[in-house]
Write a structure and sequence with these properties.
It is built from six helices and 15 strands. The protein has 291 residues and is α+β, with helices and mostly antiparallel strands.
Length: 291
C-alpha cells in the first residue's frame, strides 16, 4: 500500500488542527470493540460438487454463489510492478467474510518497495476501517486510527476530505483485490483463450481457465484498471484456477502498459468456509481523525 504510512501521518497532523467534538456533527467518537464471529462459514468439504460452465458469465455466476455459500476464506496476494530498473513488491494476507452484504476483513499489508517499505494492518467492519502502520502511535497510547466515509464527509474536516477519501479508496482497493471481486470482474468481461485444462493445485483437482479482458470493458468497475486504461493499456491477461466445489483457488493477472510498466497480481485462496473472527481493536486503542 504505497505511501499509506506517510498519508496517514499527514492526515493526522492536518486534521489535528480542526475542531471536532465527536458529537452528532462529526460522528467521530470511536465505537466499542466489535467483532463478526458469526455466522460461520460452510467448510468447502461440505459443499456439493458442481459442474463448471464453459462460458465466462455462467462460470462467474456459479463461483459467486459458491463463494457466498462458503462464507469465509483466507487469502494471500502478491503484487509486483516493474518499470525499467525500478521494481516494487507488495504482499497482503487476509481473512475475509464473503457471505455478508457488507464486506469485512482483517488484512496485513507489507510493502517491499525500497522507497516505501512498511507494514500496515487494517480491519474493515460495517463500513469503518481501523488501521495502524508499523506499530506507530497515532496518539498517546493509541496505535490505531479510525477512518470512515462519514468522517471524510464531516464539514469540519472539509480541507482534508480528499486526502481521507484517498486513504479509504486505497484500503477499499486492497480489499477488492483480496476478495474475488476484481478477478471475477475480469473474467465476466473477458474471453477464454483456448480450452480449460485440468490440473492439480496444492493436492486438489482444479480447472485452469486462461483469458484476456479489454480494459475498456472494466470502465467504472475498478479504479486501478481505470487508471491503466487512461495511460493506453488495452487488455489484461489472466488465469483462474477453480476447484470441483466451484471455489477459486488461485487467480493471476498480468499487464504491460505502453510506457513499459509491467505488473503481476496473484491471489491464492485457502481454507474456504473455516471459522474466523474479525474484530475491531479496543476503543481505548483507537484514535479518530480530528478528535
Amino acid at each position: 500500500m504505497r505511501c499509506l504510512a506517510a498519508a496517514v501521518a499527514l492526515a493526522l497532523a492536518l486534521a489535528g488542527t480542526a475542531a471536532c467534538s465527536g458529537d452528532e456533527k462529526g460522528g467521530a467518537t470511536p465505537r466499542q470493540s466489535q467483532s463478526q464471529a458469526t455466522p460461520q462459514g460452510t467448510p468447502a468439504a461440505r459443499l456439493a460438487d458442481v459442474t463448471l460452465p464453459d462460458q465466462p458469465g455462467p462460470l462467474v455466476d456459479l463461483i459467486t454463489r459458491q463463494v457466498r455459500a462458503a462464507g469465509t476464506v483466507r487469502a494471500e496476494n502478491a503484487s509486483t510492478t516493474a518499470e525499467g530498473a525500478k521494481k516494487a513488491e507488495e504482499k497482503i494476507s487476509a481473512q475475509l467474510r464473503t457471505g455478508t452484504r457488507t464486506p469485512s476483513a482483517q488484512m496485513t499489508i507489507v510493502s517491499q518497495d525500497p522507497a516505501d517499505q512498511g507494514t500496515t494492518e487494517a480491519v474493515v467492519l460495517d463500513g469503518t476501517i481501523y488501521t495502524r502502520v508499523d506499530g506507530e502511535e497515532q496518539a498517546p497510547g493509541k496505535p490505531w486510527v479510525r477512518l470512515s466515509r462519514k468522517d471524510a464527509a464531516n464539514p469540519e474536516l472539509a480541507p482534508f476530505a480528499k486526502l481521507l477519501t484517498g486513504l479509504l479508496d486505497e484500503i477499499d482497493g486492497a480489499l477488492a483485490q483480496m476478495s474475488t471481486d476484481t478477478g471475477l470482474a475480469l473474467v465476466r468481461n473477458g474471453a477464454f483463450k483456448g480450452a480449460p485444462a485440468d490440473e492439480s493445485f496444492e493436492g486438489a483437482r482444479v480447472r485452469r481457465y486462461t483469458g484476456t479482458t479489454e480494459t475498456a470493458k472494466l470502465a467504472g468497475s475498478d479504479r486501478a484498471f481505470d487508471a491503466l486504461s487512461k495511460v493506453g493499456m488495452k487488455e489484461v491477461a489472466w488465469v483462474l484456477w477453480v476447484d470441483g466445489k466451484g471455489l477459486p483457488r488461485k487467480f493471476q493477472a498480468d499487464y504491460t502498459t505502453p510506457q513499459g510498466m509491467k505488473g503481476t497480481h496473484t491471489v491464492t485462496y485457502r481454507r474456504w468456509g473455516e471459522p474466523l473472527i474479525i474484530q475491531a481493536p479496543p476503543a481505548g486503542k483507537v484514535h479518530t481523525i480530528g478528535a
